[in-house]
Design a protein that fits this description.
Strand order of the largest sheet: 1-2
Shape: elongated
Number of domains: 2
Structural class: alpha+beta
Radius of gyration: 25 Å
């Protein structure tokens, strides 16, 4: 290894250590990409977290209609469900409606349809 290569290597190592030390002294965090999204694919209960679902099945589950109002965001430094009254009302409606219908899938889907807003082609 010649002197020039050795000098470049030493400079690079010093630069990297100095860069990290400066960030610590001035409390500067390194740029990070924080992922936040819906981790589960189906149902009325939404799980927010750093590993959003990449691919979901085409299967439809009771509660999926409410998910159009569900969004996960970083709030107070945590990945969590963004408050939305439309989602909350839909979720509460479906949970109340499903009580006692656990063994009746047809009635469960009928129940869900009562909780979803009617789309008038808007």
């Amino acid at each position: 290894m010649n002197k020039f290569s050795l000098g470049c290597a030493i400079f690079l190592v010093c630069f990297l250590f100095a860069n990290d030390a400066i960030a610590k002294v001035f409390n500067i965090s390194k740029a990070e990409t924080v992922m936040c999204g819906i981790e589960n694919c189906h149902g009325v209960d939404v799980i927010c977290g750093p590993k959003p679902a990449q691919m979901c099945t085409m299967m439809y589950a009771v509660g999926d209609g409410c998910r159009q109002y569900a969004k996960c965001e970083i709030i107070d430094g945590k990945c969590q469900l963004r408050p939305d009254p439309r989602f909350e009302e839909c979720q509460i409606c479906i949970k109340k409606c499903l009580e006692g219908l656990e063994n009746d899938p047809a009635a469960s889907f009928g129940c869900e349809s009562q909780c979803l807003p009617v789309d008038n082609g808007r």
